Amino acid sequence: MDHVVPVSELRSYNQMLSEAQEGPHVVLTKNGYAKYVVTDYEEWQKMKATIDLFSELQNGVQSHKVEPSLSLDELKSHTKGS
Fold this sequence. Notes:
The chain is built from three helices and three strands. By secondary structure, the protein is of the alpha+beta class. It has two domains: 1-39, YefM-like fold (3-Layer(aba) Sandwich); 40-82. A three-stranded mixed β-sheet has the order 1-2-3, with helices on one face. The model has no long low-confidence stretch (mean pLDDT 81). InterPro entries: Antitoxin_Phd/YefM (IPR006442), YefM-like_sf (IPR036165).
C-alpha cells in the first residue's frame, strides 16, 4: 500500500525519501488530493519499461486490426525468401 504524505511535509524530505526506498511509493497530497508520487528510481524504471511494453503491444493490436493477416503458406513463403 502506498504511503500518503501531505506535500507540506517536504520540509522533512530526507525521511520521505527513505520511506520511498524502503517499499511502496510515497504519494504526496496537495489540498487533500493526490498530486505527486515519489518512488525508488529502479522501481520507476521497471514501471516505465512495463508501460513501454504495453504501448508496443497495443500498437501491435491496432496494426493487426488495420493490416491484412497472412495465411500460413504466405508466412512460410515470406520467411523462406528472407
